[in-house]
Design goal:
The structure is a homodimer of 421-residue chains. With 421 residues, chain A is α/β, with parallel strands linked by helices. The first copy, chain A, has three domains: 2-127, Rossmann fold (3-Layer(aba) Sandwich); 139-299 and 323-332, Dihydrodipicolinate Reductase, domain 2; 337-420, 2-Layer Sandwich (Alpha-Beta Plaits). Chain A is built from 14 helices and 18 strands. In chain A, strands 7, 8, 9, 10, 11, 12, 13, 14, 15, 16, 17 and 18 form a twelve-stranded mixed sheet that branches. A six-stranded parallel sheet of chain A has the order 3-2-1-4-5-6, sandwiched between helices. At the A-B interface, helix 1, helix 6, strand 11, strand 12 and helix 12 of A face helix 1, helix 6, strand 11, strand 12 and helix 12 of B. Strand 12 (291-298) of chain A pairs antiparallel with strand 12 (291-298) of chain B.
Chain lengths: 421, 421
């Protein structure tokens, strides 16, 4: 029987889940996998959490270096989040020739390449299945089989809070109430900024781009927008047009460039991602030999995420041990994106304004596919007008919007969303 | 670098795919996984296939024992299908202390438990990821993480031919034409009997029941029906009621029994399985800690299935090495199933017949939820009448159908389909 001697740094929600699974399933893991996972020591800034979990004093410390320097520990799980102390822990753990397991997407997004090469150099493993998709086994699947096939693209709904809010809005509930409900149910953080503004999804896209394309992207370098500007009007209009609005994270190879993006998107109702509602996540990966493969499940939560951590612990020394090859792809610029678009304008309610707009579309050679205007709105000061375009260029479409702003016939900054057909 | 010395028995479609991937991706596999897969010898009853693939004469034999007895070979891939010669190959391979990798669902369904214990005894591995879900990595995921969580149930669309036919029928095409189209596109075998009658799905359910529940079920012991009796009327009626009709394979723990079944089912339109159309497969697994996880992709085809074989080869000696624990669950009897049902009768077009039927429902205390009857059909000799029930017992519902047959007011053997809500 193999033995893994473990240290856990961080006893928050996920740490508690890992602790519970290891405690309750130790004999099951022995029986099924021939592995004995022995928890040597835990660490947290607060001793209260250790007390809550009834961890013995001898198995607890406030100083994480105690774990990193403990010769009896061979593998460390980091669950504190952030990219400063967590990075220090990662570097010291790997340098001390211990395996490093984490759920920290921000850390892997930022320093994944460097940490993996440090792990290789020290002949230990860096594992981070829990950083993307919570309980959905996605990264290990990519490593196990998708890599053989050369991934062409991924697209996913990777943030449960946003998806929950969008689902509630599709049922007629306004943004603020939907967010409140998500917080009550525990999907959204007390401060949901990183969920709502797309940054949580961006970290996952960055991690996936490393695993799928060997591409070391930083979130600062790609287009990231969130769900802040969405309203019930858009959700209803999308539904009328046969689409649902979802926040997607996307990565794809376009010739020798990697296109990475996070934004709202109109998905056709027969798209398999379209039925992914509420707090569920799903990621669809298209590869050369396998074609599309989608995985669906809870993207977060204590036990799903903790399960991913434990499955990584079981994979330690599994020989499936890969490295990133920096292929030096270039980053695709979103200005070069060709797509159908959904544009929602809030037009001043004067006759002739729509004619001015259609003239502008003609000038920029952008073909209008449909115009939706609700006759119920005729008495409003500003009427929402929805225009969908045929395939057009992102940069040109934004130029048109700039011109529109100058005409002063609509509210500034209209909502522009790509349509995935 | 680890070295795997391989033999392949069977050079049909999947064998060709494996051969091609190993040839084209050998250096990529070396680079990413530090594994050199060295193909020592191939075997087929027909030398023509070896010729087609330009395999050297020295690397080909018609006698599979040449591979099994070759001391230079450590792992054998079996791709001939069936359960007689394939079983002989499996037993001899494992006894000779070589790893055995297969896509043969019928073999694993029938002899999986025995073969795995033979593998354990000889300290080699039995791997069969390709036997369920083709290119969808499902079994390895179960072994990697779901087992920690104790699987509660699985339900899936596991046969691409049936799903393709049902999708085409939902678009107005009749059964026979849909089957013909599936054959033209290469999804359906020349003899599609095992697809259509549910037996292919049953083999997969049997394999999954071993991996999910450690339950050694044989296909003879559970309820298996196919898609033969479905008509356009049913698909349209289901759609009107807010459902889609799919052929599902299902396994779940009901107290200390395992409920395994293959049959048509009405799935609600917001069920994630419902958007799984055409030749796609999907399997939804519910486990204690992870909640529902669904995987979606091509369930068959040369390259997806071959990819699963190659990912198994890469997993050889990965230490993730589990055995079946026969927990001695009992088999759940479908007669005890409580479910909502869809019943389509072909009623003789005489006044008063519907009253006789509703009386019969009252007698058996089965509550009717809805009755659908198309007024356009009034001139037909037999009119299709669709009745959906509230939750009722399968055995009682069949008793009612028997009584109905005796009344001689409808065609015999009406269509009865459980509804998944």
């Amino acid at each position: 029987m193999r033995k893994i001697n473990l240290g856990i740094i961080g006893l928050g929600t996920i740490g508690e889940g890992v602790y519970k699974i290891l405690k309750n399933q130790r004999s099951r893991i022995k029986e099924y996998y021939d592995i004995d996972i022995n928890l040597i020591k835990t660490c947290d800034i607060s001793p209260l959490l250790a007390k809550k979990l009834k961890i013995k004093k001898s198995k607890f410390t406030k100083n994480y270096m105690d774990l990193i320097n403990d010769p009896n520990i061979d593998s460390i799980v980091e669950l504190i989040g952030g990219t400063t102390i967590a990075n220090d822990i990662a570097i010291n753990t790997l340098r001390n020739k211990k395996n490093f397991i984490t759920a920290n997407k921000a850390l892997i997004a930022k320093n994944g390449f460097e940490l993996l090469s440090l792990a290789k150099k020290n002949n230990v493993q860096l594992l981070y299945e829990a950083s993307v998709g919570g309980g959905i086994p996605i990264l290990n699947s990519i490593q196990d089989s998708l890599l053989i096939n050369q991934v062409k693209s991924f697209i996913g709904i990777m943030n449960g809070t946003c998806n929950y809010i969008l689902t509630l809005m599709a049922n007629g509930i306004e943004f603020d109430n939907a967010l409140k409900k998500a917080q009550e149910l525990g999907f959204a953080e007390a401060d949901p900024t990183l969920d709502i503004n797309g940054m949580d999804t961006a970290h996952k896209v960055s991690v996936l781009s490393k695993d799928c394309f060997d591409f070391d992207s930083k979130v600062e370098n790609f287009h990231v927008t969130g769900i802040e500007n969405i309203s019930k009007i858009d959700i209803e209009a999308a539904s009328q047009l046969g689409y649902k609005i979802k926040l997607i994270g996307l990565g794809r190879i376009v010739k020798n460039k990697i296109d990475l993006r996070v934004h709202l998107s109109l998905l056709k109702k027969d798209n398999p991602l379209c039925n992914v509602d509420r707090e569920f996540n799903a990621i669809l990966i298209d590869s050369k030999n396998l074609g599309p493969v989608m995985k669906y499940g809870y993207g977060a939560g204590m036990l799903p995420t903790a399960t991913a951590i434990v499955s990584d612990i079981i994979r330690i020394n599994s020989n499936i041990n890969r490295s990133f090859k920096n292929k030096k792809y270039k980053m695709f610029n979103i200005n070069n994106l060709e797509s159908k678009f959904y544009l929602r304008l809030n037009l001043k309610n004067n006759p002739g304004n729509l004619a001015k707009i259609t003239k502008l579309f003609a000038k920029y050679s952008i073909n209008i596919e449909k115009i939706l205007q609700n006759p119920d709105n005729v008495n409003l000061k500003h009427v929402p007008v929805i225009i969908t375009t045929k395939k057009s260029n992102y940069k040109t479409t934004n130029k048109l919007i700039n011109q529109l702003d100058k005409l002063n016939i609509a509210l500034k900054n209209p909502l522009l969303i790509p349509i995935e057909d």
